[in-house]
Please model this.
Amino acid sequence: MPSERVDGTDFFAVHEAAVHAVDRARRGEGPSCIEATAHRYFGHYEGDAQRYRLSDEVPQLRAQSDPLAKLRRAAAHSVSADEFDAIDTEVAALIDRVVAEARGAAPPSAADLETDVYVNY
Model:
């Protein structure tokens, strides 16, 4: 199976790899594998002291590898900071709305516990 490793924090690299994989599948050439690598900002579990990291590693990762910041820098020639800010505001409002909707929804019934768990092919 063809595979490709890409920087998972680079929007354009991931998009290009996905386009190739989708085109290949649509031509009937089978599946592809995309390995999108990225670093974690948080530990392996709640309370992980992360003693295995250098003290400045996470701040450096956030400064250099944040996917949204990288996208802003890469697309600065075609998308203005105001447009990105408007998108951020719109997405934040959408998240707030759907979280409030989910919190206000009735809890699932006991019968719902086993729906959509298994799929039969």
